[in-house]
Amino acid sequence: MNRREFENTIHTELDPGGTYADYLDLDRILNAQHLRSSPPHHDELLFIIQHQTSELWMKLMLHELDAAVQFVKADQLEPSFKIFARVAHIQRMLFEQWSVLETMTPTEYLEFRDALGRASGFQSYQYRALEFILGNKDPNALLPFKRNAPLHAWLQTRLETPSLYDEFLRYLSRAGFPIPQDRVERDFSQPYEKSAGVQEVFRGIYEKPDSHWDAYEMCEKLVDVEERFQLWRFRHMKTVHRIIGFKSGTGGSSGVAFLRKALDLTFFPELWDVRTDLKAPAQR
């Protein structure tokens, strides 16, 4: 018989509120896809689920990075390394999701694109929070949220809070590394400006990793995060290019050109620049 035996220990008398669906709140999740195209277009469901699941992964990534920041603030780098390993897999999921959306052709997207109105991924407040915690600070990014006071206040707090990189530099300062004071205390709502002094600290760490192993490992974890983030940005840009060409974005941006500019941004500039300065042991 091509059937698995049903085990009599499996729970079948389930009270309302205690089921798998109840625990996951599936009724709300699975009924949160509201198509606006009329008549409803088949591929709009793909478009909605793609972005909803991305937001769920971003929620988890933000949750993990917040925890990593707390470990750094407590001078505990090692526990954060497990977090970064998880973040790597979350970023991989976000990257791979673009391949599903890329199965939608330009013709199919145009069937329901007008239903989006002015809605745009630029208005993702979780994405904005992720960029803030990683260091891409821009007060103008709060403008789309000015009519939502609680959300605006939440993002304003994140804008003004030291980023993960800021906290790492503060950690290094506490550990005795000569981080310039103007990088330790500054207006954290403004974009980070790279420092020759910080780069020199990183050069010393990379040239003697055995003497500074935790800091050295943290440097590489941060580079990993940024590289994957940039790959995600690039895949996003190419997906948009593939589907709408050089049309303007629904949120009013220039579309592909606007997304391409993000590839020039960097979260941890000295960690990239220091690679050019490093010399082989015999040349030092």
How would you summarize this macromolecular structure in one to three sentences?
This protein is an all-alpha fold and 284 residues long. It is 58% helix and 0% strand.
What does this structure look like?
The model has no long low-confidence stretch (mean pLDDT 95). α4 packs parallel to α11 (213-244), α6 packs parallel to α7 (149-160) and α10 crosses α13 (269-277). It is globular and about 70 Å long. The chain has helices spanning 20-24, 26-30, 44-73, 77-101, 106-110, 125-134, 149-160, 164-174, 181-184, 196-207, 213-244, 256-261, 269-277. It is built from 13 helices and no strands. The protein is 58% helix and 0% strand. It starts with 19 loop residues before the first helix and ends in a 7-residue tail after the last helix. With 284 residues, the chain is an all-alpha fold.
